[in-house]
Design brief:
CATH topology: Glutaredoxin
CATH architecture: 3-Layer(aba) Sandwich
CATH superfamily: Glutaredoxin
Strand content: 15-25%
Largest sheet: 5 strands, mixed
Number of domains: 1
Number of strands: 9
Shape: globular
Length: 175
């Protein structure tokens, strides 16, 4: 499946570990909201990720009102995720344990740490998967650097437009 994740595809199983250490398929809904947004973040070492997750937490109600459940995942260990919680004020599920195989299978950009003070493992650069009620990939955004992320307000507006206007999935003709 390497690098074949495309818009309109049904999102394959995406397992990661919850804060309790239990494996969970992120594509499964934990609420009755029909859509789901999975945010892939670099890890606790990334201040831009911390900022993005905290900003997303402040907008959770707006995303819920638009019918979108939130979740976020990184390649951090369970212990790193627990440490990261000290800097986070999130109100949606966070997961850890994203593997190199998963990162590759989902076509994510993977980086090595710059040094041992950054982190102790390869990690994914930022990505967002927005799944519609059929678990198809409605919106896909991947970056190769921490500095390129969609504006959350613009993304929310776009999701609302798509849902209100039965707007089709775009970008399906070529990768």
């Amino acid at each position: 499946m390497s690098n074949t994740i495309q818009p309109a595809m049904k999102m394959p199983t995406f397992k990661a570990n919850g804060i309790d250490g239990k494996s969970f398929d992120l594509t499964q809904r934990q609420t009755d909201l029909p859509w789901k947004m999975i945010v892939v973040y670099r890890g606790k070492h990334c201040p831009l990720c911390t900022k993005q997750l905290n900003a997303l937490a402040k907008m959770k109600g707006d995303f819920s009102d638009a019918g979108v459940e939130l979740a976020a995942v990184s390649a951090d260990s369970s212990e790193q995720l627990k440490q990261h919680l000290n800097d986070l004020d999130v109100n949606f599920p966070l997961y850890s344990g994203l593997t190199l195989v998963q990162m590759s299978d989902f076509g994510l950009y993977i980086s090595e740490p710059r040094n041992e003070n950054e982190t102790d493992h390869p990690f994914s650069e930022p990505a967002i998967f927005v799944l519609n009620k059929q678990n198809q990939i409605q919106i896909l955004d991947k970056s190769n650097a921490p500095f390129s992320r969609p504006d959350l307000n613009a993304l929310l507006s776009g999701i609302k437009f798509i849902r209100e206007n039965d707007y089709p999935i775009r970008g399906t003709l070529a990768p």
